[in-house]
Amino acid sequence: MAAGINPIEEFKKDHATVRDILLGLIEDLKARNVEGALEKLITLDKLGGPHFRFEEETLYPMLKKFYGDDYYEYLLSAHDRVIRAAKRIAEVLGKGEISEEEAEELIRLIRRDILPHPIECEGLALLAEKLSKEELEEVARSIERARAEGLPLLEWADRVRERRV
Ligand SMILES: [Fe+2]
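^ thats the input. predicted complex w/ fe (ii) ion below
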């Protein structure tokens, strides 16, 4: 790989990390541990920004030749849902304490709108394996670029992403 990283491995590693953080976040919310939950949200924000960015800037459009326009639109709308959910979690946790109802609301939100991303996106590796060496190198460069810029998810969503949520 010219860029020095294997893009499919990197993308799968990100999903496994996100899975672990989300499961931990659910546990923190069950325990109404706002501090632990906030820490995990910040980690997700940092990891999710570059991840969503390379997916939207490179990987998703590149795979369109396999899955077509409708599924492409579905993937973008799934990102919209994650961004909206992350904003809501930040808003609730930002108050410094959460009620039992709020904890339940956030757990439902994570399970409905965020956890499906690593589950479903992981399956795209199946199609990414069909890309050419040159295309995979382009994806690798895109991952490195997005990581080097390091924009957190919500900042990227508000400042750079063209699609508004
Ligand atoms: Fe992903």
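The pocket of fe (ii) ion is lined by residues 15, 51, 55, 121 (CB under 6 Å).
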